[in-house]
Amino acid sequence: MTQTVFIDGAVGTTGLEIAERLAGRGEFSLIELPEAQRKDLAARRGAINDSDFVILCLPDDAAIEAVALIDNDRTRVIDASTAHRVADGWAYGFAEFREGQRDAIAGARFVSNPGCYPTGFLALVAPLIARGLLPADWPYVMNAVSGYSGGGKALIERFAAEPDLGFRSYGLNLDHKHMPEMKVHGGLIHDVIFAPSVIRAFRGMLVEVPLHLGAMGGMQAERLLAELSGFYAGSPIVSVQSGSGLQELLISEGDAPTDRLELFVCDNAGGYHARLIARLDNLGKGASGAAVQNLNIMAGLDETAGLRL
Q1: 145-163 pLDDT, tens per residue?
Q2: Minimal CA–CA distance to 65: which of 86, 44, 91, 92?
Q3: Looking at 91, 116, 129, 297, which residue is catalytic?
Q4: Whole-angstrom Cα distance, residue 71 to residue 87?
Q5: Which end of the chain is more exposed for a tag (fewer CB within 10 A), N or C?
Q6: Is residue 11 within a helix (H) or strand (E), and if so which, with residue range?
Q7: DSSP, res 284
Q8: Among this protein's residues, is 116 annotated catalytic?
Q9: Which residue segments constitute the domains of the chain, with CATH numbers given?
Q10: CA distance between the termini of the chain
């Protein structure tokens, strides 16, 4: 049976890439509004309530407003904004990072897509904290670099207008909208010290969590690698690799879209220092690919259908 999908915010980068992943799929039929009605409240209300699934690719306030437009008990929602990532009644849409999460998504009416940076962070540390291999009360640090598409239309236009802009560090007030979901879904006691940056590449992301394992009580990096490898074994999306012999990890301006998530465990000769690193596409597993994966799970389909793997 064909199920209807309305992408509210379909002309933004995330919305366009979701539509591309759904193109040609017979399981879904897209409800689309003419350009003149795209921001018309009545037209949006009608499309939202006529749909089996609504995917919100909107700013936070607009996403909250869109949910309030639902006047039935049937329409299911995937929200790609920050608005509902730690909200009661919303399932966190990261199927792999915690046992039972895929089932929670499958049965949920409301699902919040994770942020791109938290996807990398939680994939690396959440399983290890849940199993007691890393402490929940450690003051974790996360360094991350992203392609500029993660900043939306405004940042894309800035990089186009400023051709000499190669690297942009931000969040220098040590506050970022992604921090609450990292703390809550990671089961952490403290906020993460988060150092985000943007480079002159359209897409791609490296997320790193450096660990002084010797100061944590002597945990060895090889044990973390074994645990992550076992936890994600068999996943068609998440892979885990040793950083042994690895010389560099790259993001290139011409990188192709992907919905994969790669995890690396790098360590020093004694194994008491580690760099946990995630590589992903901020528009793939960090946004559009995750939304389509969640849609597939909610619809009872193969979760990798339409993904770029």
Answers
A1: 999 998 888 888 888 889 8
A2: 44
A3: 116
A4: 20
A5: N
A6: none
A7: I
A8: yes
A9: 3-113+287-298 (3.40.50.720), 116-282 (3.30.360.10)
A10: 26
